[in-house]
Amino acid sequence: MSEQAKFFILLIERYSDWKNLSTKAVYEKWKESGHLKDIYDRYWIYHQEALENAFHDIDHLMETGSFLY
Questions:
Q1: What confidence tens digit (pLDDT) does each residue in 1-38 have?
Q2: Within the chain, what is the greatest distance between any pair of CA atoms?
Q3: For residue 37, which of 5, 64, 13, 68 has the smallest C-alpha distance?
Q4: What residues contact residue 21 under an 8 Å CB cut-off, 6+ apart?
Q5: I want to staple 68 with a disulfide (CB 3.0 to 4.6 A). Which of 3, 17, 59, 60 is the partner?
Q6: How many CA atoms lie within 13 A of 39 on its CB side?
Q7: What phi and psi, each to the nearest 5 degrees, are found at residue 49?
Q8: Quick one: three-class SS letters along the chain?
Q9: Structure pTM?
């Protein structure tokens, strides 16, 4: 498994804890929004900073359709 895939799993797990949702619910929400691949592809940004920054970026994406960063 690639480092990017491992990080993506970690991101889903931590985000689900942060939002108090199941990992399945998070995955489905991201998939249904059409942004699952976009979030996956942000590995090069997200793995270098605090996860909370990624969470805020993802929340902004879900609300507005665009990333903060």
A1: 999 999 999 999 999 999 999 999 999 999 999 999 99
A2: 32
A3: 5
A4: 29
A5: 60
A6: 30
A7: -135, 175
A8: CCHHHHHHHHHHHHHHHHHCCCHHHHHHHHHHHCCHHHHHCCHHHHCCCCHHHHHHHHHHHHHHCCCCC
A9: 0.93
d(CA 10, CA 6): 6
**Rounded Cα gap, residues 23 and 49, in angstroms:** 21
What residues contact residue 25 under an 8 Å CB cut-off, 6+ apart? Answer: 16
Joined together, the tokens standing for residue 11 give 């991101």
Contact assessment for residue 27 and residue 60, using Cβ atoms and an 8 Å cutoff:
no
How many helices (H) and strands (E) the chain has is answered by: 5, 0
